[in-house]
Specification:
The chain has 256 residues and is an alpha/beta fold. Helices cover 38% and strands 25% of the residues. The protein has helices spanning 13-25, 48-60, 75-87, 103-113, 134-143, 165-175, 199-209, 214-217, 220-231, and strands at 36-42, 65-71, 94-99, 119-125, 145-156, 179-184, 187-189, 236-239, 242-246, 249-254. Bound molecules: S-adenosylmethionine. Pfam families: Methyltransf_23.
């Protein structure tokens, strides 16, 4: 997978939240009428999208308490998440449980500590790229779902060098696992990235690689590698002389 090109939900965040809203809209579609919802974020990063989803859950189900397991191996990200929690109002109904570990470490930990506990909602947003075996990871986390729970997976949706929702769909179809599939369309004009010294191009490269001043600091061979990947037909196409980067995301809502 290319650097950090897919690292944030950027303009698609509202669509994710709308989708999430419709998934939790049905009173009984999550939680089955219980007074505590068990939620889990896997690879939550700094918790930005997690807290937005939890805020919507609050709006839809104002009297429900939430037990929120956070699985995140990065100390920095967990720190950011905790700071965000400490500065966000109205989170008293949520009990945060911090698990500084990878998804596979968490699997071992969970089987020892909580073998019977079931989850109402689990999300894996832009994280399956980082695990060795995405299918085994989906299988394990799906096995934690309550009978009316949901597993939300967001990944790039089309041909790419990393795992896509297409790969996960093939796996789910083979196993006969029910799911719903949505597309979040997004394209980005990255033409300026290919003009050396162009200010807009440099900012775009910073955004795509998630590295500040990438053009100034990256070694020449890395810069060339990134530009080659961006230009590759799997990542972009030429339209009226402009280079258009395909940044579409796929969303899968997997049933237990
Ligand atoms: C691209 S970020 C996505 C963050 C957040 N979900 C979002 O969409 O804004 C991927 C996150 O997955 C975490 N991660 C990396 N490897 C992981 C693993 N093996 N198990 C769980 N999380 C992992 C990273 O630390 C990072 O915070």
């Amino acid at each position: 997978m290319m650097g950090g090109a897919y690292h944030c939900l950027d303009v698609r965040r509202p669509s994710v939240l709308l989708l999430w809203q419709s998934e939790i809209g049905e009173k009984r579609s999550i939680g089955g009428g219980r007074s505590v919802f068990n939620v889990m974020g896997v690879g939550s990063g700094g918790g930005e999208i997690d807290l937005e989803m939890l805020a919507q859950l609050r709006l839809k189900h104002p009297h429900v308490k939430v037990d929120n397991e956070v699985v995140e191996p990065s100390v920095d990200m967990l720190h950011k998440y905790k700071v965000r929690v400490s500065t966000t109002p109205d989170l008293d109904h949520i009990n945060f449980k911090w698990n500084k570990m990878t998804a596979s470490e968490f699997e071992k930990h969970w089987q020892e500590k909580n073998p019977g506990k079931k989850m109402d909602f689990i999300h894996m947003i832009q994280m399956l790229y980082y695990v060795k075996d995405p299918e085994a990871t989906v299988t394990f986390f799906r096995s934690l779902l309550h009978k009316d729970g949901k597993l939300l997976i967001i990944l790039v949706s089309e041909i790419s060098q990393c795992v896509t929702t297409g790969d996960i769909k093939t796996f789910l179809d083979t196993e006969g696992i029910p799911y719903r599939n949505y597309e979040l369309l997004s394209q980005m004009d990255i033409t300026e990235c290919f003009t050396e010294g162009d200010q807009v191009g440099e900012l775009l490269l910073d955004f795509l690689t998630e590295v500040m001043e990438f053009s100034k600091n990256a070694p020449e061979d890395l810069k060339k590698g990134v530009l080659d990947i961006l230009r590759h037909p799997e990542c972009s196409k030429e339209v009226d002389g402009r280079i258009i980067f395909n940044n579409n995301l796929g969303v899968l809502v997997v049933e237990p």
